[in-house]
Amino acid sequence: MEEESPMRRRDRIKQGFSKLLKEDKLKAVAECIENPGEFVSLLKSFWFNDTKRQKTFDEFSENTISNFPIPYGISPNVLINNRNYVVPMVIEESSVVAAASAAVKFWGVRGGFHTEVIDTKKIGQVHFCWKGEPAALREMMPMIKDRLLRDTAGLTKKMEQRGGGVHDIELVDFHNEIPDYYQLRVSFYTCDSMGANFINSCLEAFADSLRDMFSDNIEIVMSILSNYTPECRVKVWVECPVEQLDGIDEHLDGQAFAVKFKKAVDIAHIDTYRAVTHNKGIYNGIDAVVIATGNDFRAVEAAGHSYAARNGHYESLSTAEIKDGIFSFAVEVPMALGTVGGLTSLHPLAKESLELLGNPTAPELMSIAATMGLANNYSAVKSLITKGIQQGHMKMHLTNILNSLGATDDEKIAATEHFKNIVVSHSAVEEFLKNLKTK
């Protein structure tokens, strides 16, 4: 009888998978590949020996069968507002930590990074349809706001004691776009917590109150926070006299370097194709800090990319300027982060990351993450306008290529020496190892 293919086995993963024990889930999934025994052994090798810790990780998400490690790196001596930080960065991409650290070193002797937290206001929405007169709804808004705040006093009491809570409730009229559709746009302050659960609990309580007040005239569509937080944002910048940029490139003096750098950033303001890659480089640094501290990098990126399109087209999040002989480079990004609650207290490395940073407040963490974004952006643009991005990136990527080709330690040493002044590519490394083995 012909052996059943892994593809056919995938079709047989039955309903109720989520109810299986972890070992049974692993075995069921392993049947979907050619070497199930090797697969099981591999995934089990990434389980923690500490069963209590592994149980904690298993409960972070559903249907967990193993852990997926990502390198945890460090960028030391990051000078932000005249204070030094040791910054943890969790990322798998070659050269990101090295690029950030190089920029940090360069700007550390030129005054370091300066930050300003613009605001920490976050937004939630109750989406609903109103079947009555629009004018009547608008007239009742002061009464509605008072009722909603009274009804949620129990939910907001502790947050208010910490200095946060509901900031404002605004009626937004969309009935010309969608018949009868309105929303309550609610602004919140959540102190050092990201606040998602607090915000969503308040919004659902608001929805219940609206139903109670206007059961015949209202249909609640949904209640949910928004990850677009244009007012919850931070600005980071570096600056120095243009003559302090002398020596960065043998072909450019400081003034020429500054002019070319600004031109590269300006291009990212007018061309979406360039802007997307430009901003991706910013999030290399931001995401690495956000992940290391147990925050939600998807929410942070979604807010940032939406903010990049706020003027009607997608553009660079960073800006460069030369004025009165001073070169300045800045980034301004929305960023809702927390330092208490969620994974920040559950993930053991997230807790240690925050301690490593000196147990920052949420605004301080916003500044740190945005700083690493600007640092990576500076290094990327600098490389692009001088030696090119591939020379440095591929040097860092050399180890990954050697590992993928199964190079021995001696071969790695020989390859590192050989490619010191030679452009690295996969084919070139492969050819070098082939010649080395022949010799």
Give a structural overview.
It is a single chain. The chain is α+β, with helices and mostly antiparallel strands and 439 residues long. It is 49% helix and 19% strand. The longest helix is centred in the C-terminal third of the chain and has 24 residues. The chain is globular, with a radius of gyration of 26 Å. The model has no long low-confidence stretch (mean pLDDT 93).
Keywords for this entry:
alpha+beta; four-stranded antiparallel sheet; single chain; 439 residues
Tell me the helix content: 40-55%
Look at the structure and give the mean pLDDT.
93
Assembly classification: single chain
Tally of individual helices:
17
Count of strand segments: 10
Sequence of secondary-structure elements:
HHHHEEHEEHHEEHEEHHHEEHHHHHH
Query: Separation of termini?
Result: 49 Å
User: What summary fits the major beta sheet?
Assistant: 4 strands, antiparallel
Q: How are the strands of the largest sheet arranged? A: 3-8-10-9
User: What structural category characterises the helix and strand content?
Assistant: alpha+beta
Strand share of the residues?
A: 15-25%
Which stretches are low in confidence, meaning pLDDT under 50 for 5 or more residues running?
A: none
| Radius of gyration, taken over Cα atoms and rounded to an integer in Å | 26 Å
Shape: globular
